[in-house]
Amino acid sequence: MTDDVWILGISMTKFGKHPELDIVDLAARASQEALRDAGVTMGDMGVLAAGNLMGGGRLAQNLQKQIGQTGIPVYNVTNACATGATALRTVVMAIKAGECDMGLAVGAEKLSGAGLLGAGGSAKADAATFEPQGRFGAVTSLDGRVGTDTMPGVFAQIGMEYDHKYGGATFDLFARISEKNHAHSTLNPLAAYTKRLSLDAIKNDVMIAYPNTRPMCSANCDGGAAAVLVSGERLRRMDPDQRRRAVKISASVLTSDPWSDGCQVLPDINTLTRNASERAYAAAGVGPDELDLVELHDCFATAELVHYDNLQLCKPGGAVDLFESGATWRDGSTPVNVSGGLQSKGHPIAATGIANVWEVCHHLRNEAGARQIAGARVGLAHVIGLGSACGVHILERSAA
Amino acid sequence: MTAQVPLVDYLVLGPKPHLRAHECSACGARYFDRRNGCARCFATEFHTVEVADEGTVTAFTIVAVAAPGVQVPFVPAVVDCDGTKVRANLVNVEPKPPHVRVGLPVRLATYVLGTDDAGTEAIGFGFEPTEAKA
User: For residues A227 and A78, what is the distance between their CA atoms, to the nearest angstrom?
Assistant: First the structure.
């Protein structure tokens, strides 16, 4: 049995507009704050994994040049919206492999004003001559002619597919899921949006891709998040206060898509999430009914619904009933996205998979202030990057 | 007669236009793109099969905001054609619920989507409600 890996320090920047900060600034702020929170320095780090999706690579080295060049191995990580979780898991693996006993994982992104993701940057002009190209032998752009490449449209179909399978997943229901998350974020000072939105306001906002209106889509914004991880063996030799605030990583799982029927036609975000959660529950020895809070990847309101099912917070097909019961509101039996989630806290892609771990840790350390889930002992953080990659982390409060 | 090309190579034109798929000879998994192997069973032998031209909508959205140059609204959908899932737009239908809905029976339809500088027409495809006016 290998030693456990623990979170010694963790932080996130405020999510939102940071016009004066670049990606390295955001990563540096999050990293320096996580190191301070951990009570250690860059000199203690044996590995660095840095995630950034839209910035062009080499964040790790650029970050080192600002906060500490010590010659340690660095990994530049991209894995779609699971980039942050993948950076975290890279450090977990290095510590589990015995290569080092402490490491830093960071994710940072600049996305304010990025607009529609998946749409490409400029107008797609048709070719002057129709020549078959690519794996489909297409004579012109297929986006808009054979389905959609945009994220709101893809995830909208995933929600409607759930409706086809089980029923009850109406426009109104999806809007009420969004209403919940926009209500939750009113208690989160680091969220991009902290204004409560009425159900009518959500339903009557600009339609992006039915049934997702604008506030039902993840908020593009800037942000960074970072975590310092330590081996259990090293932690046992640290100060009592560090040990008391340390959070145990009871499970760290990353999955990709196993082949499933139709998965190359419409991405199947369900199977790999279910697989990841099953492995995580088994590794942690924790059941879904024991979770005090869940931060899941609500990149769209339609996605949150299917992940209730995929993370086994309900019985198969029971996601609509679970939401209707009130269980996923912050005063319910399984609070989901008490941070406000991606729809309201925001989704600076590479930061998201560490920021959701930060949110869970904040509650497990009893440091979440006005939005504290009382007595939180165990929580789950989930992300999915389309394509796909799914990260699930189960976190437990220190027994000390 | 005007020269025509299909929008994609898996659309077969002719008196009875249809979609074709690459079917894995070992496990039967179907794909529309050029293949290096089977993602399900790793085999590398494929043969061509005709896909049913009628099916049922299992998922859809109505895209109202899209990339520059893409006309909106349009209705991306997944159509289950007798066990083969197909990605396509729904066409010849009011792009609003309940005109579009999951469970809707549909059939393949083709249309001219444009003409290039050489006068060649590109033929696109979509699925229309089977109860639509003939």
Answer: 17
